Amino acid sequence: MPPSLEASLAGPALEQLVEQLPAVQAKALRLTVCEGLSLRAAAAQLQISPMAVQRAQKKALAALSQQLVGAG
Fold first, then answer.
1. pLDDT tens digits for 31-59?
2. CB within 8 A of 50, min separation 6: which ones?
3. ∠ CA 66-54-36 to the nearest 5 degrees?
């Protein structure tokens, strides 16, 4: 499958999985992974500690990984 087609199929499907995450996990993931913010910058936006952002990000990535492996 060409990368552009693969990306177009994965984008909306991945976004649907992210939307199913708890709000803090989804926001932490979007800010740190999608927007490239540091843990401190994301923590400032979310008004939580950087460690809480890191935990939320790890939980979100683990949940997405589990969903993708289960679907594959």
1. 999 899 999 999 999 999 999 999 999 99
2. 39, 40, 42, 43
3. 90
* Single-letter amino acid code for the residue at 58: K
Closest CA to 32 of 54, 15, 10, 7: 54
d(CA 56, CA 16): 18
Question: Where do the H-state alpha helices sit in the chain?
Answer: 3-19, 23-29, 39-46, 50-71
d(CA 28, CA 22): 10
Q: Which residues contact 45 (CB under 8 A, 6 or more apart)?
A: 31, 37
Angle between helices 50-71 and 39-46 (to 10 degrees): 100
